Amino acid sequence: MHIKKYGPEFTRRKFMESLTKGAGTAGVLTSLWPLIGHSADDISKAYPDELLSIEMYTKGKVKPGDVITADNVEHVKDLLTPIAYEQVKSMGRRITIVESTKDVTNLYPYEYLDATLRNQGKAVLDKEGNVRTKDGRPWIGGNPFPQPKNGIEAMYNLTLSWGRHNYSQYAIRDWDLDPDGGLSYVYDFAWAELNANARSDDKTWKGKDDILRYQSVWFTSPSDASGTSFLSIWHYDQNKFPDLYGYIPAFRRVRQYPTNQRFEPLVPGVTFFLSDAWSSGDPLLTWGNYKIVDRKPMLGAVSPKNFNGGYHDNYEKPAHGGPQGQTFYDTYMELVPECLVIDAEPTGYPRAPVGKKRVWVDARNQHFIGYMTFDRRGEMWKSFEPAFAQYKNDKLTVMDGNHPLWSWVHVMSHDIQSNRMSRFVQVKEIAGGYKSIYDPGDVDVYNKFLTVQAMQRLGG
């Protein structure tokens, strides 16, 4: 018989104490980040067994290998976002439970974790509220605040480097479903991110101290959307709105878009906005009233089992549930021992349709595992649920340089008010021959994909 040394009341009390004193240090039995910093990849010493074992947490009601359905979802209701709970309870979604990840190197790109360890303690907020090094430079790489003391610090860990690679180019296939579960659109598009600062190599790209990132998206299929492209240039100052440009083939010209169009779909049928990207799709200081409202365990899709490469040639994923059996991706979730729950409001957008967003952040790597928006009335509106993984399984390991690739695998963006779903997956290749790329080598990705001229060329 296993005798519990620490029970649920001990854990809840420790989380409440941390909220009362300020978020500060992650971990329950000992501080998590110094444990990681001393090359202890196994985080078991930081948490009681009940936070690393779904079977112990649920008192034997749920164990790894079980599938969460409407019949047993009540056992894990407190571990799911409200919309994920409704999806399982009422819409036929299923979630497979796996063991919790204890080796944190499975939760980061290698270079990003190395930069976080190397640069810990060097980040400060300047008088404008931006992250700087102590000698006044733009942030140099990794999580600036591996032990965030408040919501702003936690959200900076998300905002400064979305994909946690210096350059990311995602080949994406998207399926958009109507309220009746029928397929209305299928899009192929590429999404590129080039960080000028907050890079894992501690450098500023081409001396661009005033730029955080260049980000573009271009559609390659179907034919009526092919050539549609957008470019967003993020200033390093998080008080400034990005410069947003778009190319629409029907008009054969590039136009600059107003800021408030960050809350509109880029193409017909999709449910997600630029604002939703990575749960931090707008400059951090154009939102406000950040607050850590809870600290708790959650279920999160961060297991390598979410990577389906090697089983489907193009890394596509099976779906299930909903009115026609194709609404939700098959997903593997684990018990995440500690999450920060952060609320924020769009203070810089007086006409924003969003009243509030809520973000669930995994304390082990400071990345989001859940995100929801609420409308102006305070009603639940949309969820943007990601799955992350190291890209490896029993048949294949995808390398990023000398290390296994870590990235997002799929996203489900569910507008629960209209019951419209957009679900998209990172694939090997999309129409037009564009592939997912993380190490561009000598390729001039900036001039190829991240300028106004590139938008015109991609649209032509």
TrEMBL record:
A Pfam family: DUF1329
Superkingdom: Bacteria
Record-linked InterPro entries: DUF1329 (IPR010752)
Protein name, per record: DUF1329 domain-containing protein
Organism: Spongiibacter nanhainus
